[in-house]
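Hello everyone,

My group is preparing for a crystallization screen and wants a predicted model to guide construct design. The compound we'll soak is zinc ion. Before spending weeks at the bench, it would help to have a computed complex in hand. I've included the protein sequence and the ligand's SMILES below. Output in C-alpha cell form would be ideal because that's what our pipeline reads.
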Amino acid sequence: MRARVLPSLTDPRSQLLITFVVNDRVAIDAGALAFHLTGEALLAVQDIVLTHVHLDHIASLPFIFSEMFADIRAPVRIHATAADIERLHRHIFNDVIWPDFTRLRNAHGELLTFSPFAWREPFEVADLRLTAIPVTHTVETAGIIIEDPQGACVAFTSDTGVTDEFWAALNALPRLDAVFVDVAFDNANEPVATASRHLSPRLLASELTKLNRPTQVLAVNLKPFCRERVIDEIMALDLPNVKVAALDVDYAW
Ligand SMILES: [Zn+2]
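Reply:
Good plan to model first. Here are the C-alpha cells for the complex, ready for your pipeline.
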C-alpha cells in the first residue's frame, strides 16, 4: 500500500487543506484534492472517503465536478456517514452555494454517487478494506483504518483531540504498519488544541502511550503558523518511530 499527503497550495509545507491519496486511487478527504491533482491523476481517484465535513477537508470537492465535468467517465463515489452526506446536500450541493451535481449528467452518465458508511463496520473501497472509528473532534469525525489484500494496514486519525476508541481499535488489529496522526498545534497553543479538539506534541506523546504496539507514527495537519515549533517539539520527544510526514511523497508498506 502507498499513501501520500497532498500539499495544499503553492507552499509545499502548508497543510492548510487536508487530503491523503492511497495507491493513486482513493482519497481520504478532499481539502486539497482538486487543487493539487489535475487531469488523469484526478480522474484516477474514483473514491473519496470523507472523515468529516469541516471546510479544510472538503474545500476542493465541489470543483472536481465543475472542472472535470466532461471527463468523468464513471461516477466518483463519495463515502461518508449518512449524516455528513445530508450535510453536503444541504450546505454545498444545494443549487445555491454550488450546483447539485448529483442530479446533473454528462455524456457518460452520473458524475457522483454518495455511499454511506457505518461506524466500526468494515466497507470495501477499490480493493481495500476500510473501517471508520469515531475520534474526538468538534463535529462527528471518523478515524480511518485501511487494510489491503496483502495485509498491510495504515490508519489515519483525521482531526482529533484526546481520544480512546481509535487507539483501542488499532491495538486490536492483526497488523499495523503506520498511523498518520493530527498534531495541529505547538505545546504553547495547547489550550487552543484542546478547545478545537486537536493534538499538540505533548498530547501526542500522551496519546501514544495508549498504543501498545510499535508502529511508524507520521504527524500531519501541522498548522502553518506554528509548523516549525511543532517539528522542534516532536523531535524533542525523542521517540524514534515518530516523524513529521513529508508532503507529496509516497510512503509504502
Ligand atoms: Zn476538523
